[in-house]
Amino acid sequence: MPPVERTLSILKPDATRRNLTGAINDRFERRGLRIVGQKRIKLTTEQAERFYAVHRERPFYRSLIEFMTSGPVVVQVLEGPDAVALTRAIMGATDPAKAAAGTIRRDFAETIEANSVHGSDSLETAAQEIAFFFSTSEIVP
Ligand code: CMP
Fold first, then answer.
1. Using the 8-state DSSP alphabet, how is residue 7 labeled?
2. Which residues contact 35 (CB under 8 A, 6 or more apart)?
3. Residue ranges lining ligand 1, Cβ < 6 Å
4. Residue owning the nearest CA to atom 3 of ligand 1
5. Of 83, 93, 61, which is closest to residue 130 (Cα–Cα)?
6. Residue 118 catalytic?
7. CA–CA separation, 140 vs 89, rounded Å?
């Protein structure tokens, strides 16, 4: 049995706008991930800039910040065996045109930017990203 991990997922504004939060959560739960923390919030520009600071120099950064603050998002902590890699596998490639069949991005994403979901890219990033949005008492395994 792979080690139980936690990862951060964000259901992005294109997903909340189209009422896809339940459909997306179903994909995670069916694959054995448990949603141990979840809240619907509107990111401030400052929060989005800090969260995506690693992409500061990328050409898509400003547009990404505008998109991520354009509507509500659902931030969530997913827990389960191999949660970081499993979540990324369920999401599929960043670019929906390159995402495998049956993945969230292939089935739901609108564009490479409005790609419905975010998932932490490593265990270390996951710990930082979870702490960015959640206090210990908000995570209930
Ligand atoms: P995410 O996994 O949240 O990480 C960075 C985000 O930037 C990505 O998903 C997309 O929403 C957005 N983005 C927009 N254009 C690109 C691009 N060319 N390459 C990677 N990410 C992009």
1. E
2. 25, 28, 29, 76, 77, 78
3. 55, 60, 64, 94, 112-113, 115, 118
4. 118
5. 83
6. yes
7. 24
